[in-house]
Give the backbone structure.
Amino acid sequence: MGDFKVHVLGCASAKPNPVHNPSCTVVDYRSNLFMVDCGEGAQQQFQRMHLKFSRLSHIFLTHLHGDHVLGLPGLTGTLALSNLQETLTIHTTEEGADMLRTIFGYFNRDSTLQVVFDTFNAQKEEVIFENKSLRVRTIPLQHRVPTVGYIFEEKEKPRHIRRDALERYNVPFSQINNLRAGRDYVDQNGILIPNSELTAEPTPSRSYAHIGDTRYMPSLAVKVKGVNLLFHETTYLKENEAEAQQRFHSTAAQAAAIARDAAVGRLLTGHYSSRYRNDRLFLEEARAIFPETILGTEGLTLEI
């Protein structure tokens, strides 16, 4: 299995049903787990998919509707009882941090788990997390409450060393880090050897965009341009487009239009309204516009 995966834990919209759980997705990057939203039942599905609580250290909330956050009290309680880690970081707005402090104060008052809130402005695009190899940034969306999407993107990777070229030009080992960073090499005679002679292009960086609850925003195509995998909510079908607009949601056709215009690798559907009894209708509607569409469902794992 690869080192960059997306696990689907919940595909329902506001009203869950016997088929789908409320919203929850887990990004698995090099065995570090990053949860996006935490609807009811998230921790059960987390365990069904054999994910490890000890590897979950960050939760990213898109907004403060119940179907995206009400699994948090139970999950944090389980993390405390498991005693597998000391700290959990929740990324949310100031309002979200205040609300969750109150909730945890009632239900998790004796918890040994330290919950840290990293707050952001939902009206701004900003980088809210990064480590040595991964960056997470926000995209403001249009919903009934302040809402963001997230892009998980690998940082640029180092160039590949051409071992045969190093031997040919007698390049010392001490120069390898400079070459990987793209610098040219000047030998002991003062002759410049271009980096392109000594290295090859780096492995392309990969990216995942998570666009949850939002009204159709054609401008998103620029924001998610070229990502390998795009999750875009598909709450409604085209026949209910007027209602989607009114309730600040999107149709499968609109999500597919974003994917097409952004030239993404693949589109993942989800956040289905409970009024529809056949999920494949979302797939058919989206594939008519963007053929590389995957039907989101609980238990699905996709490699990026």
Observations:
- The radius of gyration is 22 Å.
- The chain has a mean pLDDT of 95.
- Residues 154 and 205 are 5 Å apart (CA to CA).
